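task queued by scheduler; priority normal; single chain, no ligands, no partner chains; default sampling; output format set to structure tokens
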Amino acid sequence: MKPTVFFLFFSLSFSFFGQNSISGTVYDTEGVLPFANVIVKHTSKGVIADENGKFAIEAKPTDTLQFSFLGYTPKDVYLQNTKDIKVILDSYESLDEVVVTAFDSSCKTILTCCGYYISYEHICEEAKGNEPKIYPNPSSTGVFNFVSQNDHQTVEILIHDFSGRQIQKLQWSSFNNKGEIDLSGYQSGIYLVNIKADGTWLETKRIIKG
């Protein structure tokens, strides 16, 4: 009798404290929401949902998953042994995109509100048609190529995570068309890249490490 009781206790303990494979789908009010961030709260463990809003992540039954996406209000879900989750994120519609001011004759400043992150995007007319490109995007490794058709004397890149925290600042004093952005040491998710060339802010790009 004792071995049976011990085995039952061990099985229940493993089920309660061990890692489970949690899967599910992320939606908004119009249907599936692709590429949403899914993290185990208070850890560095996270994944990104695929183009169909589906995700899979290892977590304990006592963990809380946090779901987020730019332009949507984050949502926490306490697992409680749930293994299949359907989550609906609500869009944040207070501000979408507002032109704030013109700071010279060729550039304008855009205030973009992404739910819980606000960024300033500086767009210059002379950059049209020659915008810098970042690829591959998404990147499974977290390593991106940054390419510009123009030769710049200086290039500065600021990278923010989805919470608005700056995680990297890259600078090139003599930029020759191509550079590298390495996010391999960071969790999967969406990042914002602010690009400044020769003292002028060009644009903000969204990249995905998945």
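post-processing summary
- The chain has one helix and 18 strands.
- Residues 4-16, 94-129 have pLDDT under 50 and may be disordered.
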